[in-house]
Specification:
Number of helices: 3
Structural class: alpha+beta
Number of domains: 1
Protein name: Pyridoxamine 5'-phosphate oxidase family protein
Shape: elongated
Number of strands: 9
Low-confidence stretches: none
CATH superfamily: Electron Transport, Fmn-binding Protein, Chain A
Order of helices and strands: HEEEEHEEHEEE
Mean pLDDT: 93
Largest sheet: 9 strands, antiparallel
Distance between the termini: 21 Å
InterPro entries: Pyridox_Oxase_Alr4036_FMN-bd, Split_barrel_FMN-bd
Organism: Pseudaquabacterium terrae
Length: 183
């Protein structure tokens, strides 16, 4: 984006345009999102890869191993935050989301069908769950996939634009509307 958005509506549109680009451009800064979840009484944080952006639904999609701790954490507490940073734009985007996990159904089957012909399928074919102790460096893959589709419905978009002169701008967009807030 060559010029900075000026209005709250332009900010919202620009964020979703960047999210759409990030879902299809492997080198985009927002392709890797930091996902914060609740693990008991502690926070947990890791990166996930943005696979799809659906601006009309205000949702994002990423994939994971169905046995991953994040799946259990989101099942127990389906609210979390995605954090994105673009050095080129100098934008930080915090997305408070409600997460939905799918392990079967037409949407999952269609994506798995596309993915299983690629090297990325190995991420979901390990006989061991993520984080499980290993006896050898790499276990042999199985034929059974453990693929899950996670949909993040954005409930709150928190945009921060940083400037060298210190005149930063911040906006919140949620069910209460769009508004400027102090950076």
């Amino acid at each position: 984006m060559s010029t900075s958005p000026r209005t709250l509506q332009e900010i919202d549109a620009a964020c979703w345009a960047e999210l759409e680009r990030a879902a299809t451009e492997p080198g985009h800064a927002w392709r890797l999102m930091a996902l914060a979840t609740v693990d008991g009484d502690a926070a947990d944080l890791r990166h996930v890869v943005l696979r799809e952006s659906r601006p009309a639904e205000r949702s994002l999609i990423f994939y994971t191993d169905a046995r991953s701790p994040k799946v259990a954490q989101l099942a127990a507490h389906p609210l979390g935050t995605l954090l994105l940073w673009s050095r080129a734009l100098r934008w930080q985007l915090r997305l408070r989301c409600r997460f939905y996990i799918a392990v079967d159904g037409a949407e999952v089957a269609a994506r798995w069908q596309q993915l299983k012909a690629t090297p990325a399928a190995l991420d979901y074919l390990s006989p061991l769950a993520p984080g499980q102790a290993l006896q050898a460096p790499l276990p042999e893959p199985t034929h059974e996939g453990h693929f899950a589709l996670v949909t993040a419905r954005v409930e709150r978009l928190d945009w921060l634009e940083l400037h060298d002169d210190g005149l930063h701008r911040r906006a919140l967009i949620d069910a209460e509307g769009a508004r400027w807030v102090a950076p």
